[in-house]
Amino acid sequence: xxxxxxxxxxxxxxxxxxxxxxxxxxxxxxxxxxxxxxxxxxxxxxxxxxxxxxxxxxxxxxxxxxxxxxxxxxxxxxxxxxxxxxxxxxxxxxxxxxxxxxxxxxxxxxxxxxxxxxxxxxxxxxxxxxxxxxxxxxxxxxxxxxxxxxxxxxxxxxxxxxxxxxxxxxxxxxxxxxxxxxxxxxxxxxxxxxxxxxxxxxxxxxxxxxxxxxxxxxxxxxxxxxxxxxxxxxxxxxxxxxxxxxxxxxxxxxxxxxxxxxxxxxxxxxxxxxxxxxxxxxxxxxxxxxxxxxxxxxxxxxxxxxxxxxxxxxxxxxxxxxxxxxxxxxxxxxxxxxxxxxxxxxxxxxxxxxxxxxxxxxxxxxxxxxxxxxxxxxxxxxxxxxxxxxxxxxxxxxxxxxxxxxxxxxxxxxxxxxxxxxxxxxxxxxxxxxxxxxxxxxxxxxxxxxxxxxxxxxxxxxxxxxxxxxxxxxxxxxxxxxxxxxxxxxxxxxxxxxxxxxxxxxxxxxxxxxxxxxxxxxxxxxxxxxxxxxxxxxxxxxxxxxxxxxxxxxxxxxxxxxxxxxxxxxxxxxxxxxxxxxxxxxxxxxxxxxxxxxxxxxxxxxxxxxxxxxxxxxxxxxxxxxxxxxxxxxxxxxxxxxxxxxxxxxxxxxxxxxxxxxxxxxxxxxxxxxxxxxxxxxxxxxxxxxxxxxxxxxxxxxxxxxxxxxxxxxxxxxxxxxxxxxxxxxxxxxxxxxxxxxxxxxxxxxxxxxxxxxxxxxxxxxxxxxxxxxxxxxxxxxxxxxxxxxxxxxxxxxxxxxxxxxxxxxxxxxxxxxxxxxxxxxxxxxxxxxxxxxxxxxxxxxxxxxxxxxxxxxxxxxxxxxxxxxxxxxxxxxxxxxxxxxxxxxxxxxxxxxxxxxxxxxxxxxxxxxxxxxxxxxxxxxxxxxxxxxxxxxxxxxxxxxxxxxxxxxxxxxxxxxxxxxxxxxxxxxxxxxxxxxxxxxxxxxxxxxxxxxxxxxxxxxxxxxxxxxxxxxxxxxxxxxxxxxxxxxxxxxxxxxxxxxxxxxxxxxxxxxxxxxxxxxxxxxxxxxxxxxxxxxxxxxxxxxxxxxxxxxxxxxxxxxxxxxxxxxxxxxxxxxxxxxxxxxxxxxxxxxxxxxxxxxxxxxxxxxxxxxxxxxxxxxxxxxxxxxxxxxxxxxxxxxxxxxxxxxxxxxxxxxxxxxxxxxxxxxxxxxxxxxxxxxxxxxxxxxxxxxxxxxxxxxx
Length: 1247
Prior knowledge:
Layout: E1 3-4, E2 25-27, H1 42-64, H2 70-111, H3 118-166, H4 171-176, H5 179-189, H6 192-199, H7 202-221, H8 225-269, H9 271-276, H10 280-329, H11 336-378, E3 398-407, E4 415-424, E5 429-433, H12 440-447, E6 452-461, E7 464-467, E8 476-477, H13 478-483, H14 490-499, H15 503-508, E9 516-517, H16 526-539, E10 544-548, H17 556-570, E11 575-579, E12 591-596, E13 599-604, H18 606-611, E14 640-645, E15 657-659, E16 666-667, H19 673-683, H20 686-703, H21 720-759, H22 762-767, H23 770-812, H24 817-848, H25 860-865, H26 869-918, H27 925-951, H28 955-964, E17 990-996, E18 1006-1012, E19 1018-1023, H29 1036-1039, H30 1044-1048, E20 1051-1054, E21 1063-1064, H31 1065-1069, H32 1077-1086, H33 1090-1094, E22 1103-1104, H34 1113-1127, E23 1131-1135, H35 1143-1154, E24 1161-1165, E25 1177-1182, E26 1185-1190, H36 1192-1196, H37 1202-1208, H38 1212-1246
Parallel strand pairs: 2-15, 5-11, 5-12, 6-14, 7-10, 10-11, 19-24, 19-25, 20-23, 23-24
Antiparallel strand pairs: 1-16, 3-4, 3-6, 8-9, 12-13, 17-18, 21-22, 25-26
Helix pairs in contact: 1-2, 1-3, 2-3, 2-7, 2-11, 2-27, 3-6, 3-26, 5-8, 5-23, 6-11, 7-8, 7-11, 8-10, 8-11, 8-23, 10-11, 10-21, 10-23, 11-27, 19-21, 19-28, 20-21, 20-23, 21-23, 21-28, 23-27, 23-28, 24-26, 24-27, 26-27, 32-34
Domain ABC transmembrane type-1: 83-346, 730-954
GO cellular component, one term: basolateral plasma membrane
Protein name: Multidrug resistance-associated protein 4-like
């Protein structure tokens, strides 16, 4: 199957009429030849009214003290469109009721053809019948097209509201939702609106048509019709009960789906940690269990759908049977015209009453559940809004905080900051220091207006630039990440690149600053991301700079360069607040603010700190309070005032933000036979499928007995016992079995996809965004769960019905095979043409249904600080417009195709109607009635059967899922050779001529590395940022005979970026309950977190938010370190594991490494030279090559070594202190070795 990919810019969309133009986000998206909307952005057009009515509903509810209703807002917004469609559907159903009456009139002519004006009246009836058939085709498709467009507008507007709300959620609100839930809302819940609008009107059309048909039947055959209609009423009541069950099951299913998608989102985000700890099997089992619970609810819903379809195909037969039985009992004589009139009226009410009406109940029930879920999300707490546009009268830029007390969680109201007061003016640098969890990041969040204030004043006057502690880049080029909406000025851009030490890194990139980074782009180190984030802030030329520890992720040389050239020079005239653990830079600060437990310990210049004898030790004491990194609002209170004012917006200095969305390859042509084979055989064996086909054929053969009539004016006795005893059990059985098989196929393919993804290479996750992967688990699996089984069931039953009708028609009047064959040929050609065209459009629709999810959790603080929410909202609107274009094209093509089918069928009906009149001498009334009634039935069924065969385009969802079950896999988890339990007993690692790169087409990041470690040795790895020191491997000669799990389970890795999961503290330390609780507390104590956790209300059972956002970054790193210590492995790899902790905590961690982990080989990757000198040996890497490998004191006293030069960047005094310490450590190690040797000799002498 041919595959292609594309990447091309799409112009930005204009703002709606009446709104000013603002900088928007451009997305690199494919310029598909699809229809464009006349309103610029269709999303804005749809969302504008929707937002207005929702806001009015919220205001009304607040005034009345009620909860707002999203249903009311939707009704107010779309009632006019629904009213228009109700007119169409009313006349459409009137024509359907009129058709049986005209048919009865025509058949009555054949019963009594000798009337004076009988032939004339028959021709008039035929002409009116033809007109009604054509009118029905036009009204039906106009109405259907209109309703689907209404559903699309509702879906698009609601998606816009969800995405918009996600940008404004507070910290407390973020704890109540997850990225997985947002994905589920955008992928599955809003899709219900596309379906509910199509069937909504049948809630009133069904009962109304039933009343009209009852009246007509009563006038024709009398009271016996009431028996048949009573059956219909019973079925309607039964299906209404089904609707309540649908609602209940939908609520339970969505909750389970949220859990599954949330877990899958965490797996994708933390895939490196999962692979490092060999947790793949455990997570596969966890997700499989969640899926099993979800499928149990989906199966029940599918069985209800199967029952509804079975009722639909059997209802008219039961009603006709009961009606005629009662008529016979009452001795009513029924003519042929009355028979066909009754049959056609029951067929008419069957479609509306037993198909569309229950479908409407089902879709409305599910839509109500989705509306309530969306409403709950829209009502989550948001960040309080502030006026950012006005300048103070004097135009002064200043940050002034007086007596600030604030909290994150307004429920617990535990202060994160208490009684802080300080003022920072232009040209001043305020350094904020303190131990882990002291409230440093909370202070910056308070200045950004993201904390709820209890008392005090916060005045921030000026435009703000913010650098978060966890650097964030969006999918795009390096240049677009730095410009971030500012116009490109070459001189200024080069100055910023130089000040942020990015020149060398850009030279190493293949496409320099045009290299795509972020989701699906070139992987960057944390240090490179930190410098890009800092460059973004500097290029903005803001008035106030809030820098949250940007120096921890880079090496000493780069750190000094950033501080001197960027912070002290480029920002010398700005208001700068720097959170840092790099205490060597405090001398250059204008003021220092020391925090502990959210309180101010000391404030003033560096000289005052020396006078008060507060040194680096006291700056690094341990704290107890966790520091959330997300936001939580509260209503302003009388005890404080908050003023946040920006300089006037500089629209003339802005341009579009170019975001390169991750585009996936897509197949061309129709879905292959292999996909169908894999789909059907995933749920059962071929023998079961053959048996199911035979059951369907048997059911259809028995049903066709119903059409056996005697040629004459009276009915032949019908053997309805066969029909009653055989058809119904077969009909119900085939429905339930088919639904079970297809839902089970969905379950098995989902589980295979989970296992395949967890077995895939890490590069797969670098090249595919989390949104793209989750789209398979959410949207595609959702279609396979709900719509695909229903479509196949409908297709099979309709196809067999069409075959039965054609057989009866040909058996009764053989020459009808000619128009039927011609009709079939035309339908086949139309279907072939449509499938070839719609298949590609459907694939484009699937590929364009993407959401830029990577900006939510990590990028939201930065976007909010830069006031760029509106810009990134435009990105979502662009994506939605593109998807809507492909959806609208697919919808239009489908309607045109259906219209052609109906017109062809209408021509057949017209030909049969007038042909019967012309050849009236050759046919009996029974034949005429049978052929005409079957032709009318065929008009609906034939085109619906062909349309359903094209709806199998949804098999592309199965194709996309199956594609992910066949991903390239990493090496086997286990091999035949299993190492002994005590392996490795020494922990010696050797690299022999190792060359390593992240992807087959990527550059080498390790080059000819040959090095080895001694058993139980502590080795530190240092180098320049991005030098390749994070790429550690074990020589392939040592690992080729060992499975990946056997290898990974023997090592513990603490990654550079901490990964935590939603759940309790205990679950994050020991996800699969492998350790005692006492061991958990011991591990926490070793990483200096025991007292902090004990001080929490829930202690070890404290719930962590998504990504552990209710802990500070430093606390997250320490928690990951505790998790690694628990494994008690012989090999421990620490990749910048303490970069975000204070020096005192880092010193204590080093003592643990040389004490508790004395029997363990430890590889420590760090930028802190103070952590280096305690190691046995130091490995210095540069550009992936080993430059130095020796003992610390040797390298520190060698003036030509890279380590010595790096130490000099700290200053001569600090470098000399490190050299002296390295010498002392070396002497101490010699003494320890000597003592151990003497002890060994003494022990040997005793023996």
